[in-house]
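yo

u said u wanted the structure for the complex thing, so here. seqs first:
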Amino acid sequence: MFFRILLRYILGYIRIRIEGYSVEKLINIAIKKKVFFWNVKREKTTIIYTNIGVKEFKDLIQIAKETNCRVKILDKKGIPFILNKYKKRKIIIFFLLFFIILLMALSQFIWNIKIEGNEKISTEEISSILENKGIKIGTLKNSIDKQKIINEIRLERNDIAWIGIEEQGTNITIKIVETSAKPEIVNEEDYCNIVANKDAQIVKISARKRYSRSKRR
Amino acid sequence: MLRKNKKKEKLLDRILEVPKEVATNEPKLTISGFSQMLVENYKVILEYQDIYIRIKTYTGIININGFNLKLGEMTEDDIMITGDIETIDYEKIDNS
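structre next:
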């Protein structure tokens, strides 16, 4: 019931005065025809005040004609009538539209870059890399190809294990996980010579793998 | 048009525990405090004045006395009365 009144408020309603001898008859007929009205108040024996929606008002006038009642509009309430008031003030509407468009347009750009998770690599270094790739303050959000940038950075830098780009409205958060540079792997299958730095005498050779060619001199 | 005749409570309704105001045409009055009253299953408003409301239902007439009585919200089945309610009395009609 409350919802119905709320709906009438959105669509607009009017306060009316009905004058006639058979007001009860009018109320009954209106209810039977599913004309919704509320807040009925009796003033004297012949006058009632009531609220009614704008759309139902035409039906009520017809019923009032049948029952010989007079209807007078006292007050117009609701959102449509409030908006009507501002119809002549074009500058307000213009600026309202202007601000909405401005807000929507500005929300398409990036205004904040946050870098998280870096310890060894300085923030300036990362931001300069990102600038080269096209993430700058004031770039369009749609123009950023996240996956491509992530791949490029990971190929270029060895000390970044993982990089993530997160979009939250006009903010961008870049999360970085660092690694130490990977150690050189020695292929044990390769042949190689072991050469000592200083002159020395070999006392003993203990070969763990394969066998030693040289013999003790 | 089922509502026009007096409906009797059927056995099925009693087994399924259908609410009485739905199953039958008996009026249901809900009074909350001294200022609000909801009448369900009514027929017509016979009389409406500032101090006196007469509502016809399927089993009788309900009279409500008070001050500043207002009809709050009205639909086909129920009616909301607000204002200072003083007395409520019934006039039973035998329509066998």
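The longest strand of chain B covers residues 60-74. The domain at 25-92 of chain B is CATH 2.60.40.2000 (Immunoglobulin-like).
cya
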